[in-house]
Amino acid sequence: MLTDKRILLIIGGGIAAFKSLDLIRRLRERGAWVTPVLTRAGEEFVTPLSVSSLAGEKVYRDLFDLTDEAEMGHIQLSRSADLIVVAPATADLMAKMANGMANDLASTLLLATDTPVLIAPAMNVRMWEHPATRRNVSRLRGDGISVVGPNEGDMACGEFGPGRMSEPLEIVAAIETALAEGPLTGRRVLVTSGPTHEPIDPVRYIANRSSGAQGTAIARALAVMGADVVFVTGPADAERPEGVHVVEVQTAAEMLQAVQAVLPVDAAVFAAAVADWRVASASDSKIKKDKGQIPSMEFAENPDILATVSQMTEGRPRLVVGFAAETDDVIANATAKRLRKGCDWIVANDVSPETGIMGGSENAVTLITEDGAESWPRMGKDEVAHQLAVRIAAALG
Ligand SMILES: Cc1cc2nc3c(=O)[nH]c(=O)nc-3n(C[C@H](O)[C@H](O)[C@H](O)COP(=O)(O)O)c2cc1C
């Protein structure tokens, strides 16, 4: 699957750099060409000789190496690959990337490139959880950079938690997804997912039980089939999918804004459980608890994202798919919803508590199209996602 793919592998200065030697081996076994770049700190952890021996190519190390510039300029080097992989991606490299800095060879290549980029972060758990790193990761995802890992586990520094670099084979799988060519290659697809949080005051909010699992699985399945996926998600528990552009939002209003910024797309799948109402005048400061005083709240209707996009007169996606989470008369309600909203398909599911679907790993859906209702057997959410992606590919032709 990776035969003759060209990977520019940037190795940053972290303990996990030793795993990148194995990553090179795994990529070469699969027929990929690996051009390695070592940061100055990376050289402290693995030697240029071992990296170049395994890669079978010279190691690029210095922005101002005139010999390298004569052979292949840094701009050309940044664009010569099918994919740039940063492994390990240190906190420092991620901060540089998020801020557009270019003060060494690795960061300059990353700023000068128009090639897709995948990063495999690796760092101490406190560094990973630091607000600055959280901000940087979220900005990088928003810039369309794919992120694989990190995993949770024992760390070289003796601590435990998220921060361990993904294993080489996990990175290979993420590379295969990023380079996937399939029936949706060249198609741009929007997926919304998760709940929205509607503030009551700065510390309280109204939410729902959506875990984001089904939307995440759909985004992943579409990406595996080669689609360029933009994933707009509310604050969901599910891990963000690899190989897609992630946009994080909190409220329904923010989700609508994010969706409009993503258009035009070929297809849009609205799997998010968007809150129907918000508190009309959310308080800017925490509402105090006064004994015997129970605050009353007025609600306002949230924007209807599915209807807004379905009823666009210009630039409407060719295929708009909505979701209907129902507890009664699932098919009748979902069929009516399809017509009311003006979308092409509705994926309906019964979210009554006894089904265990909301927050669970399985789903039993009915696909409602203009041809009628088609009930699928109960299956894993990943399988539902795959089947839906196959149908979307067929519909887009
Ligand atoms: C022993 C040791 C281990 C380190 N491990 C990591 C690490 O796993 N992740 C990380 O982000 N930084 C780590 N650092 C800090 C980086 O090496 C340092 O931030 C460096 O400037 C990164 O440079 P680079 O991003 O250009 O590779 C480590 C430093 C030392 C001395």
From TrEMBL:
<dbReference type="InterPro" id="IPR007085">
    <property type="entry name" value="DNA/pantothenate-metab_flavo_C"/>
</dbReference>
<dbReference type="Pfam" id="PF02441">
    <property type="entry name" value="Flavoprotein"/>
</dbReference>
<protein>
    <recommendedName>
        <fullName>Coenzyme A biosynthesis bifunctional protein CoaBC</fullName>
        <ecNumber>4.1.1.36</ecNumber>
        <ecNumber>6.3.2.5</ecNumber>
    </recommendedName>
</protein>
<feature type="region of interest" description="Phosphopantothenate--cysteine ligase">
    <location>
        <begin position="189"/>
        <end position="397"/>
    </location>
</feature>
<keyword id="KW-0511">Multifunctional enzyme</keyword>
<keyword id="KW-0288">FMN</keyword>
<feature type="binding site">
    <location>
        <position position="286"/>
    </location>
    <ligand>
        <name>CTP</name>
    </ligand>
</feature>
<feature type="binding site">
    <location>
        <position position="323"/>
    </location>
    <ligand>
        <name>CTP</name>
    </ligand>
</feature>
<feature type="domain" description="Flavoprotein">
    <location>
        <begin position="5"/>
        <end position="176"/>
    </location>
</feature>
<feature type="binding site">
    <location>
        <position position="337"/>
    </location>
    <ligand>
        <name>CTP</name>
    </ligand>
</feature>
<dbReference type="Pfam" id="PF04127">
    <property type="entry name" value="DFP"/>
</dbReference>
<comment type="function">
    <text>Catalyzes two sequential steps in the biosynthesis of coenzyme A. In the first step cysteine is conjugated to 4'-phosphopantothenate to form 4-phosphopantothenoylcysteine. In the second step the latter compound is decarboxylated to form 4'-phosphopantotheine.</text>
</comment>
<comment type="similarity">
    <text>In the C-terminal section; belongs to the PPC synthetase family.</text>
</comment>
<keyword id="KW-0460">Magnesium</keyword>
<keyword id="KW-0456">Lyase</keyword>
<dbReference type="GO" id="GO:0015941">
    <property type="term" value="P:pantothenate catabolic process"/>
</dbReference>
<dbReference type="GO" id="GO:0046872">
    <property type="term" value="F:metal ion binding"/>
</dbReference>
<feature type="binding site">
    <location>
        <begin position="303"/>
        <end position="306"/>
    </location>
    <ligand>
        <name>CTP</name>
    </ligand>
</feature>
<keyword id="KW-0479">Metal-binding</keyword>
<dbReference type="InterPro" id="IPR035929">
    <property type="entry name" value="CoaB-like_sf"/>
</dbReference>
<dbReference type="GO" id="GO:0010181">
    <property type="term" value="F:FMN binding"/>
</dbReference>
<dbReference type="GO" id="GO:0071513">
    <property type="term" value="C:phosphopantothenoylcysteine decarboxylase complex"/>
</dbReference>
<dbReference type="InterPro" id="IPR005252">
    <property type="entry name" value="CoaBC"/>
</dbReference>
<keyword id="KW-0285">Flavoprotein</keyword>
<feature type="domain" description="DNA/pantothenate metabolism flavoprotein C-terminal">
    <location>
        <begin position="184"/>
        <end position="394"/>
    </location>
</feature>
<dbReference type="GO" id="GO:0004633">
    <property type="term" value="F:phosphopantothenoylcysteine decarboxylase activity"/>
</dbReference>
<feature type="binding site">
    <location>
        <position position="341"/>
    </location>
    <ligand>
        <name>CTP</name>
    </ligand>
</feature>
<comment type="pathway">
    <text>Cofactor biosynthesis; coenzyme A biosynthesis; CoA from (R)-pantothenate: step 2/5.</text>
</comment>
<feature type="region of interest" description="Phosphopantothenoylcysteine decarboxylase">
    <location>
        <begin position="1"/>
        <end position="188"/>
    </location>
</feature>
<dbReference type="GO" id="GO:0004632">
    <property type="term" value="F:phosphopantothenate--cysteine ligase activity"/>
</dbReference>
<dbReference type="InterPro" id="IPR003382">
    <property type="entry name" value="Flavoprotein"/>
</dbReference>
<feature type="active site" description="Proton donor">
    <location>
        <position position="157"/>
    </location>
</feature>
<keyword id="KW-0210">Decarboxylase</keyword>
<comment type="function">
    <text>Catalyzes two steps in the biosynthesis of coenzyme A. In the first step cysteine is conjugated to 4'-phosphopantothenate to form 4-phosphopantothenoylcysteine, in the latter compound is decarboxylated to form 4'-phosphopantotheine.</text>
</comment>
<feature type="binding site">
    <location>
        <position position="276"/>
    </location>
    <ligand>
        <name>CTP</name>
    </ligand>
</feature>
<keyword id="KW-0436">Ligase</keyword>
<comment type="similarity">
    <text>In the N-terminal section; belongs to the HFCD (homo-oligomeric flavin containing Cys decarboxylase) superfamily.</text>
</comment>
<dbReference type="GO" id="GO:0015937">
    <property type="term" value="P:coenzyme A biosynthetic process"/>
</dbReference>
<dbReference type="InterPro" id="IPR036551">
    <property type="entry name" value="Flavin_trans-like"/>
</dbReference>
<comment type="pathway">
    <text>Cofactor biosynthesis; coenzyme A biosynthesis; CoA from (R)-pantothenate: step 3/5.</text>
</comment>
